[in-house]
Amino acid sequence: MMMARKQDVRIPTYNISVVGLSGTEKEKGQCGIGKSCLCNRFVRPSADEFHLDHTSVLSTSDFGGRVVNNDHFLYWGEVSRSLEDCMECKMHIVEQTEFIDDQTFQPHRSTALQPYIKRAAATKLASAEKLMYFCTDQLGLEQDFEQKQMPDGKLLIDGFLLGIDVSRGMNRNFDDQLKFVSNLYNQLAKTKKPIVVVLTKCDEGVERYIRDAHTFALSKKNLQVVETSARSNVNVDLAFSTLVQLIDKSRGKTKIIPYFEALKQQSQQIATAKDKYEWLVSRIVKNHNENWLSVSRKMQASPEYQDYVYLEGTQKARKLFLQHIHRLKHEHIERRRKLYLAALPLAFEALIPNLDEIDHLSCIKAKKLLETKSEFLKWFVVLEETPWDATSHIDNMENERIPFDLMDTVPAEQLYETHLEKLRNERKRAEMRRAFKENLETSPFITPGKPWEEARSFIMNEDFYQWLEESVYMDIYGKHQKQIIDRAKEEFQELLLEYSELFYELELDAKPSKEKMGVIQDVLGEEQRFKALQKLQAERDALILKHIHFVYHPTKETCPSCPACVDAKIEHLISSRFIRPCDRNQKNSLSDPNIDRINLVILGKDGLARELANEIRALCTNDDKYVIDGKMYELSLRPIEGNVRLPVNSFQTPTFQPHGCLCLYNSKESLSYVVESIEKSRESTLGRRDNHLVHLPLTLILVNKRGDTSGETLHSLIQQGQQIASKLQCVFLDPASAGIGYGRNINEKQISQVLKGLLDSKRNLNLVSSTASIKDLADVDLRIVMCLMCGDPFSADDILFPVLQSQTCKSSHCGSNNSVLLELPIGLHKKRIELSILSYHSSFSVRKSRLVHGYIVFYSAKRKASLAMLRAFLCEVQDIIPVQLVALTDGAIDVLDNDLSREQLTEGEEIAQEIDGRFTSIPCSQPQHKLELFHPFFKDVVEKKNIIEATHMYDNVAEACSTTEEVFNSPRAGSPLCNSNLQDSEEDIEPPSYGLFREDTPLPSLSKDHSKLSMELEVNDGLSFIMSNFESKLNNKVPPPVKPKPPVHFEITKGDLSYLDQGHRDGQRKSLSSSTWLPPDGFDPSDYAEPMDAVVKPRNEEENIYSVPHDSTQGKIITIRNINKAQSNGSGNGSDSEMDTSSLERGRKVSIVSKPVLYRTRCSRLGRFASYRTSFSVGSDDELGPIRKKEEDQASQGYKGDNAVIPYETDEDPRRRNILRSLRRNTKKPKPKPRPSITKATWESNYFGVPLTTVVTPEKPIPVFIERCIEYIEATGLSTEGIYRVSGNKSEMESLQRQFDQDHNLDLAEKDFTVNTVAGAMKSFFSELPDPLVPYNMQIDLVEAHKINDREQKLHALKEVLKKFPKENHEVFKYVISHLNRVSHNNKVNLMTSENLSICFWPTLMRPDFSTMDALTATRTYQTIIELFIQQCPFFFYNRPISEPPGAAPSSPSAVASSVPVLTSTPIASQPSPPQSPPPTPQSPMQPLLPSQLQAEHTL
């Protein structure tokens, strides 16, 4: 058979006929076998051009149309394909079918009336102008489709595709189909044309049908079968290409791919195209409001879009687009939903935060509640259409309010329940936090500074861990710790102020000694506020040091109440009340020219001063201005390197008034130059009115040494500098100072620190207005100081309102910001009163430096510290100066319900009575008192004005004859200096003048009253001070001749000189004198004679001489002579009873002028810690001399006055400790109930702490425990050093008592207790007795007996009192004293003399009742009584003769005079010392610092 070929040989053309079962519905079933779909997919493979419905039932018109053209075959058109060998070919596709008339449902009649089998096998087809077929819709509408005619109107068929439908066709039998196909195949085989069997609809194929079809093909001699699916486009091209290869036998055999494998490949291709298309859509479409039309236009050019549309069609592409749009919209809605749900808890917290309001409400009821809230529309929006996610609200991005219908959703209900649970949990957590805080506040285990690790076990429980994290509790605990630490610090600061007397008695300086710090620790140790900072010892010590700095250097800045210091308030009040001239115009001549100026002297040898001055100038501005804390100061420097006696090197010039001095040194020679220059400068101004150079602030600086430093180490230079700085009372900067380096180059920070210190000193001098001129003094009649306590709970405005608003109140012109002038009618005349209103800490400086006629002292009745500061202040005030005490209360006195306020009011009133002062109280609710309230006080001041001024002048004269130290035991602390002038040049050979003023100084006139007073002073016996001046050491000059003149006498009204036994003061308590007054008759310091002139004179009266060394470099020795007649009542013995003089007695002796003493000696409530004034040597704490020890050869076993020196060694702290414990005892009367034991907190004892009568019997009068302890001590511990002084271990003492409490037969030797433990336990037994071993009523009799001067009579009187003891007490007391006597006999080994033992035991045995001040001031008396019992034990208890005290010969006066103070060795009146042998002078603590030649003179 010849193949029909086209003319174009280059591209082969094949005509293929697709045949298969056709005919009526009866023959083929309800649907065809898929011949049309197969042809459609092959000719037009694009999914959009593929049609599933191709009907064969046509109308006559459609059948006759040009597409069908009255034929029973369809021309599908021409297709070009590339076969596997890459050769392109063309194929004309014809489908043989049979069209059915839609009217008769019979085949249409055509030109060929042959049956289908015959027609389908035809190889020659002809039909003129037959058009290409597309789809059923084309029929009748041919003009709407492409019109392409079958070429030449005829075709020669080259091969056949025989289709077999393997699907489960409706109303068709597959076997019948096979029969039809078999017949058709037979007919086709006759044509000798290639035939390929095509299995159609394999996507719905039946396995059996497919198998039968393959069986049919196998039976027909290698008939190839291709499984296809036109719908899925699987193997369609393979079927046609297989037939082409059969037609063209030159081509290779085609590989037949099974349907499922081909389907897999097709599916993968479609999936890949789909993924790419979805990626394209997601990249282009971002908004859910996009439409398909616009997006498809954007995607048409994209291969991803084209490929997917080709494979799956536009509808599927659009469907995927819509799915993406829906997803975008859903995501958008979910995002909005999440935002709304996230805002919903916030809305709940804002609208319904109260759990009590919604605790039992459901979500529906809570929704109604929300609508009632005022801020509902701020959080929610009510939409007209619901639900919100189906409305346009989803695109309203500006409105962030929550759609209210969201509350109807389940998530909203869950959030509401979560909100409820959160509120409940927060309430529970708040309760836990509150409970935890309450637990912290109430727990006794939580103390300031306790770490969390230690406190956790005491305060945590399971509930706390369940509800809160530990970090929360740690944060609460940390805040609580900060609160209690701050509160404890405030309370501790208040405690320090309550012990103001102690701090001022110790006379602390910048660097307190260890001994003084130890005293402070001992005194405060038992206070609960001290113990509260036990775990913060460093901070506690820092507070103590800060307070010491305040006491030593009191300023507004160092005040504990800063910035609410009284001085600052007063300055503000006065400055706002009065506009001073300097405030109106800074350039006014009345203003202070030095207010913004710093004049600095730089002292240094060998170029040191000039070099430092240049370095400081380099830090200044061009106009010599220096900036400190943002304020500009004019800095004027004066470097000095030569002899300061020469005018060219003088510290002070007519145009230069120094405010401070920097002293530089880098060697011993330069340090000596500094010391010598300072001393010369001070000496040159002594006696001048402007002697402020004596107190010029100094700073000693160690700088780098130039050149070789061999032979001088840095350490030695530092030590020498510290010693000199301590002596000069100045600041020392060394290389070890924190924050201050040393070297030749001094930076700005270091200079600023020095200048700030000078500014502070300058302000302090301005505050107290140190120097007033004679004219100023003449303009003012009275100078009154009003003292207020910083931090008191009252307003200074209200207190001072009557003063400042007074019509007579004027501004003071003395330059002080704290004083005003008052003109008040006092008596018959008006008086000008300068009223200085100061804090107590500023008043201390005024008290020591200025003439003051009277004090008005305020204190708060409800603050202990306020009254304590008042007591400390009054201690050092002379008893001739009137004092007005003013108590500030919360209300009227009769309605006070505060015990403390009533006690403090009572104490203040008693102090006023004892010092003959005035007392009043002012309710703080009505503080606007009137000045008339103080008129009686002002009258007292006027009456005593002359004697006050005379005494002030007298003290100035006394100090003018000394250099830098005070008169020994002067009744006035820190009298001002008023020394004679020294010449300005060393070349002067004339002796210095000893006049008080220069010759050109006019003297103020004195009143008649003053003259009368001076006459009374001259005729009375009294106290004369004889002063000697050894100037040869200092100036190499001959001492000036001294002419004897009648001494000034003062009669001591009661013969009590105990104030002389108060010990030395530190040299630091000295200040400038604000005025200088002369006594009548031109009193001159040269009236005083030499010491030896007085010593060699025979004396008929009792004469006590005290030689007191002063600054060794000045060579001064002051001798104080006490001349008074012997008193029948034993004057001079220093006893407490003799110190007390009733107001009645003072009133009777008002016409007799006595030598003024301090109020501390007249008032039993003052000087509580006076014993510590003499416990330390004179001088600065940094140069503390050796501790005064007991002299065995002195009559020190006798009575020691209350204010006498208490000798102790460095290891004898328990004596001070026991005294202080007794001072802190409860002042209430002891109750008969058992005394509780501090060591029995863990068990109830039936032996310790019970009355003595319950532990003794007539058969055994000694308690078994005491007997066992003493036996053990005497057997093993008599040689133990410090027995009864060294404390035992408290836990071991408690263990010993506990074991004895359980077993009275306890053997101490077997238990291995230390001797100190047993001794401490024994003392504890007596301390815990409900009543002391020495009964209280017996203590009074003992004190009275001790007052007897005659020693033998005194001992017999004490013995008589001893016989009155209760029998039980007498036996035990005898047993204990006998034991202590035996211990004292071993004092050379155990170092425990009878005195030391009495110090340790008297508080234990006597426990005096301190409800009365007599008992308080007689503490030394108690100790002396116990000492006598120990010494004279054989006499008191065993009827032996009286023994002599150790270290004194029987004939020695000291053996008889037991009442002589420790340091005085003064013979009693009945046995005067011969003139040739004055009594020995006690060892002075300053004596080792004196030059050897002066020491020799001192001992003479």
Helix content: 40-55%
Give the spatial strand order of the biggest sheet: 20-21-22-19-23-24-25
**Total beta strand runs:** 28
Distance between the termini: 171 Å
DSSP strand content: 5-15%
> Structural class of the secondary structure composition?
alpha/beta
Oligomer: single chain
In DSSP terms, counting alpha (H) and pi (I) runs of 4 or more, how many helices? 56
State the low-pLDDT regions, or none.
Answer: 1-8, 580-595, 707-711, 736-745, 767-778, 960-1153, 1177-1213, 1215-1242, 1448-1500
Main sheet overview: 7 strands, mixed
Mean pLDDT: 74
How big is the Rg?
60 Å
Notes on the structure:
With 1500 residues, the protein is an alpha/beta fold. The chain contains 56 helices and 28 strands.
Which characteristics define this entry?
1500 residues, alpha/beta, seven-stranded mixed sheet, elongated
In short:
With 1500 residues, the protein is α/β, with parallel strands linked by helices. It contains 56 helices and 28 strands.
